[in-house]
# Entry
Amino acid sequence: MAQITIQQQEELMQRTKKFVAKYGISKKWLASKVGISVRDFSLFINARFAITQYQYDKLLGFVDEWEQCMSTFSQL
# Structure
């Protein structure tokens, strides 16, 4: 499986930073939910480390699902 470069992950890095701030989610908690070590997750959101394709897909799916649930919840 090919590794995605840091540059290719930039958009998700920025989105994840905003996501954590917007919802007040602990970085440690989010890292554990998507199977990334806390150290690697910290390096990732600070654009110093490229996560694997699997971790990228899992993080993207988690953020997408969470935001979908929150948008549905806010419409109630």
The radius of gyration is 12 Å. The helical segments are 6-23, 27-34, 38-45, 53-74. The chain has one domain: 6-74.
